[in-house]
Amino acid sequence: MTIEVRVPQLPESVADATLVSWHKKPGDSVVRDENLVDLETDKVVLEVPAPMAGVLKEIRIQDGTTVTSGQILAVIEEGAAAVPGASAPAILAASSGATAAAQDTVAKETVAKDTAKPDTAGGKLSPAAKRVAEENKVDPKTVAGSGRDGRVSKSDVVNYLSAKDAVPPSSAAPKAPAQFVPAPSARTARAEQRVPMTRLRARIAERMVQAQATQALLTSFNEVDLKSVNELRARYKDPFEKQHGVKLGFMSFFVKACVEALKKFPAVNASVDGNDIVYHEYFDVGVAVSTDRGLIVPVLRDADLLSYADIEKSIANFASRARAGSITIEELTGGTFTITNGGVFGSLMSTPIVNSPQSAILGMHKIQDRAMVIDGQVVVRPMMYVALTYDHRIIDGREAVQFLVTVKQCLEDPARMVLHV
Question: Quick one: CATH architecture of 199-419?
Fold first, then answer.
């Protein structure tokens, strides 16, 4: 008995997917629910499990092919024995061979120069080369020509003189210094590799360009003294982790601070739909997570109702599943505001790009000890620059600046977030 392996039903927002790679080849034994192949969509990687145990009899779709819901990917034969040394179909082998041959050709490309010697008659000496050779008493027969048919150029003579460390003869009038000619590169091959964008990377590029083209983006900056947050984390990190099973990080403080600011300035939590402004009366905060495939933004639904522990647990869960490729499209959809932390990579300051159709994004950066004047005294404080990029069509500069000031006040005095002041 044989059974077909098909593309699973894709979500409504996803029209198709790209077959990334097969984990099995024809003739291999498979176990029920074992992952056979990865399909990449605009947002996530989907795994296609084996519907039953048996042997992978046939692969019908090659790597890199675009597929749609219900399309047949492969055929499994139930209860059959694995075929030792089985290989992929001829079409796949031919494709792989052609690709390997092409790569080998590229790798072997070299740029060689003709090093033919000039003839004894000196007919292959350019006028400028002949003049320099005569002035420096150089035998043209000893100079290798780099021109067509071994023609000796002025630079060939100059390079010869440099190599021999020859001293020009004295004369009544000083000569102009010899022209500098860079030495040829020692690299024998200058290979290039052309790799198509992944669907996720292409989607990110599309969204970023769209945001730049359709929104009036502007960025405002401020700085935050994180001394109070550091003290709270140091004081309660052990009992917090013991009680909730997760570390108390910085992101929960920033999420809570942004929610307080969004409540005061609803335009920052709004979006543009045609000629309308949509004011969201809920707070779905996206938190950017870096993966090997690119940046994705899972969403904390109703962040205003979540505790610090809930936020930290959700972010840790999102991060681990995003890097494992098991996060769902629903978890990446929506969001009214986004926070991104470039500080984990060492960024001191940046201008993040809005995650359209949202209207604003907060950028966190590296915490750095700096000398600050506090109450007339110079003290060292852990400071962070924060940036708010926003759509100037619906958010005024005054609102953007006051939003950042509110975030700053909440983080420098965390009691505000408890008292909602």
Answer: 2-Layer Sandwich (3.30)
Say which of 119, 304, 310, 396 is annotated catalytic.
396
Residue 251 C-alpha from the chain's centroid: 22
CATH number of 2-107: 2.40.50.100
Instruction: Tell me the residue type at 178.
Output: A
392 is catalytic: yes
User: Tokens 């090997």 — which residue?
Assistant: 292
For 111-187, CATH number out of 4.10.320.10, 3.60.10.10, 3.40.190.10, 3.40.50.10490 equals 4.10.320.10
Strand bridging mode 66-67 / 17-22: antiparallel
Q: Which of 363, 356, 360 has its CA nearest to residue 394?
A: 360
Q: Which two tokens stand for residue 216?
A: 């009036």
> Are residues 282 and 336 in contact, defined by beta-carbon separation less than 8 angstroms?
yes
Q: Which residues pair with 218 in a beta bridge?
A: 390
Catalytic residue from among 114, 392, 413, 420? 392
pLDDT in tens, 345-402: 999 999 999 998 999 999 999 999 999 999 999 999 999 999 999 999 999 999 999 9
For residue 202, how many other CB atoms are within 10 A of its CB?
A: 14
Query: Is 365 a catalytic site residue?
Result: no
Per-domain boundaries in the chain: 2-107, 111-187, 199-419
pLDDT tens digit sequence for 120-153: 344 467 666 777 777 778 787 787 776 666 777 7
